[in-house]
Amino acid sequence: MRILIAEDDFTSRTVLSSVLKKSGHEVVETVNGVAAWHALQQPDAPRLVILDWMMPEMDGLDVLRRVRAQQTDQPPYIIMLTAKGGKADIIAGLDAGADDYLTKPFDAGELRARISVGRRMIEMQAKLEDALQKINESFKAAGRIQLSLLPKPLSAGDQVEFAWKFKPCDAVGGDIFNVMSLDATHIGLYLLDVAGHGLPSAMISVLVYQILNPHTGILVDHTVNPPHILDPEAVLNILDREFPLMRFKRHFTIVYAVLDIVSNTLTYSNAAHCSPIIISCKNDLRILTVSGTVIGVNAFAFGQETVMLAPGDKVVFLSDGVFESGNAANELFGEERLYQTLRELRSATIDDLVQGIYSKVTGFAESQPAADDISILAFEIKD
């Protein structure tokens, strides 16, 4: 393997180079810290470095600190070489980021042994990097699959218009939602949030997505004529039986609703999810508060409510990632900021409403990474 030597003493550098070359290694020699630093900035820089502590212009400790301050996927394995053999000196070198330590005068056998350890560590790191890359590629593929499950454009004549936004905090998310036609006059819609993040939560969310399909019999009973649309609370009761917490080790919240586009009524049931919000064209916001407990514990009735909507009314479904988005001051976006945002965007189109909510949340968080998935699903009753 290629090894960089940074040693200002000619004799020490010559002996080091001779021992390493006899062991079959390719050697790159530098005579001071500045030259060593420049050599380590090259694209083909050696992965293993023997770095003398005491050197002119820039000592080994300064080089070490600079290297460790860099953000790189392939940091070099660095062995500090010095006559400083005291415990305090060793601790200082290791604290600065040295991987190993070799004192002068060094033994050729010890040098070869430490080089062998370094090579094994580099090989292990390469294997870990390869495995991590494959995992990341799998996560990205899973994320693309999940995004493909987002609602497709739904034709509901001129009576209702939908819009949505989904931003997972990881490659895949625990949130998922859908809008689907149940029959000629009824539309089913839901938004769910599986506890936790990452692949386990995403797998459960996709499984629920597959079950909540108009053709599975859970949303619409096709064994009778005409087919019978199940009440939202009945749907949640089925999910509560099919996804027990003891089996899946994760619970989830969900709000499921059926919109009748003839009567402009919305019937919903809520399993501890964020309350849907009606932005009335005539009055203030209306929070739909009927709710039960999470899916999977079989504890309390979920309840159900039917509300009348008017042309111009907008209904917003959200995940808790909206409320719980935080900024650098550890403040949460919260309900009051959301309600104020909805009032400000009362007259916006449904697309602009959804994008406006998302922009307000992300603007509030600024550079803070999202701690949870952000999902927004909304619709407007048209004139």
Task: Describe what this molecule looks like in 3D.
The protein is an alpha+beta fold and 383 residues long. The protein has 2 domains: 2-139, 3-Layer(aba) Sandwich (Rossmann fold), CATH 3.40.50.2300; 152-381, PPM-type phosphatase domain (Phosphatase 2c, domain 1). The chain contains 11 helices and 17 strands. A 5-stranded parallel beta sheet has the order 2-1-3-4-5, sandwiched between helices. β9 (220-221) and β10 (228-229) form a beta hairpin. It starts with a strand and ends with a strand. The model has no long low-confidence stretch (mean pLDDT 88).
Percent of residues in helices comes to 25-40%
Strand content: 15-25%
Cα shape: elongated
The CATH class assignment of the largest domain is: Alpha Beta
CATH architecture grouping of the largest domain: 4-Layer Sandwich
- Here the CATH topology of the largest domain equals Phosphatase 2c, domain 1
Reported for the largest beta sheet, the result is: 5 strands, parallel
Topology at a glance:
Elements: E1 2-6, H1 10-22, E2 26-30, H2 33-40, E3 48-52, H3 60-69, E4 77-82, H4 87-96, E5 100-103, H5 108-148, E6 160-167, E7 175-181, E8 186-194, H6 198-211, E9 220-221, E10 228-229, H7 232-242, H8 245-248, E11 252-260, E12 265-271, E13 277-279, E14 285-287, E15 305-308, E16 314-318, H9 320-323, H10 334-344, H11 350-365, E17 374-381
